[in-house]
Amino acid sequence: MKKQFKSIFFLLIVLSIVLSACNAAADTQKTIRIASDTTWPPFEYIDETTKVPVGFDIDLINQIAEKEGLTIEIIPTEWDALLAGISQCQYDVAISAITITDERKATMLFSEPYIEAGQIITVVAANNSVNSTADLTGLTVGAQIGTTGAIEVEGMEGVTLKTYDTVDLAYLDLTNGQIDAVIADYPTAFSFVGQSNGELKLVGEVFTDENYGIAVCNQNQELLDKINAGLKAVKDEGGIAPLEEKWLSTK
User: What's the pTM?
Assistant: First the structure.
């Protein structure tokens, strides 16, 4: 009887080890849900031909996933829903030109920075009266709702903020003369100006010190470690510069 009990006990141990290995394999193969506001070119937008997300951030997260053996799914998500969703861990990751701020750090984890992205002013090419934030007094300035650009305008005395659900609508209103300026992240502003056929221009200097990071559910430090490891591998191999050339250059 004792011998039989030992045999059963041994089999239970073996079974436990096998199940643990299977669970570990399943965790490795879990699809990582990644939210992205695909209305923010050149970082993320929907390709009109293929109808799939493309852009700087999309290429970057795909490279990180490849380095770390992660299976990912990009989920197009509106900006406000993206921030709320990652804060509540409805998504595993969010990559969407997200500026790292202390306020956001309170509800989500952030990767190491991957690109500098301070705020800058865009005006129509014929406007020679705006050269800095000091010249915006009495004017109406557009920005995407919930972004650091909108927060900056809110803090400017005598400046009227007009918010937009997507940043392209702000630039459209600027081109059509409905607003006086747009404030947005430098890489995005640079891209819109480059595609405007000379109708728009950047003025002044970048006036905030900001960096983009990849947001991760605050309950998943292990996933953050993998994201950082993959990001470091991409950086170490010089993978950021080709993305900048591909997506941020006006050539």
Answer: 0.74
